[in-house]
């Protein structure tokens, strides 16, 4: 690994509108740019849950959309559906359902998941028909591009990118180092 390479940092810090889990006062902020149709993102999801459980009250996890539309034709619509769920306070249940059912992200599937998580279906249908969350998803993508993201998932630990190309264990090790340093 080139130790002289510049450190890639998060272009847009954590925002009040970001989807988060964990306490606001956490010592580590773990940000993921992800894609609901990305197989590697699906594999990464249990790791983020495990990290939240392993380090209670020490990690705040945030998720931003980065649908790779050329490779994943249903990812953008899935991101919009998750935002519609978020507007009704159901982002994380929808997040879980989308990854659990990653092979089934067509519009009719998304409607079924909206029912399953208990959304107001008239509102959901109107929002999806009008694509009212498309701009928010596009803003996430743009912030990811400004952070030099090219693939999903991309993780940032306290604003600095974490390379996971050799496995998710690198993420856990980085978090342990950050927590140890701040004790």
Topology:
Layout: E1 19-21, E2 28-34, H1 39-54, E3 59-65, H2 75-87, H3 91-100, H4 107-116, H5 121-130, H6 134-146, E4 154-157, E5 160-162, H7 169-181
Notable traits:
single chain, 183 residues, alpha+beta, Glutaredoxin, 7 helices, globular
Descriptive overview:
The chain has 183 residues and is of the alpha+beta class. The two termini are 28 Å apart. The chain contains 7 helices and 5 strands. It is 46% helix and 13% strand. Strands 1-3-2-4-5 form a 5-stranded mixed sheet. The protein has one domain (19-181): Glutaredoxin. The radius of gyration is 16 Å and the shape is globular. Helix 2 (75-87) runs antiparallel to helix 3 (91-100). Helix 1 links the parallel strand 2 (28-34) and strand 3 (59-65).
Would you tell me the overall average pLDDT? 94
The largest beta-sheet arranges its strands as 1-3-2-4-5
Total helices: the number is 7
- Rg to the nearest angstrom? 16 Å
CATH superfamily: Glutaredoxin
What is the CATH T-level topology?
Glutaredoxin
Shape annotation: globular
Counting helices, strands and paired strands, the structural category is: alpha+beta
Question: How far apart are the termini?
Answer: 28 Å
Number of strands: 5
CATH class: Alpha Beta
Percent of residues in beta strands:
5-15%
Number of domain modules: 1
Largest sheet: 5 strands, mixed
Query: Uncertain runs with pLDDT below 50, 5 residues or more?
Result: none
Give the CATH architecture.
3-Layer(aba) Sandwich
Helix content: 40-55%
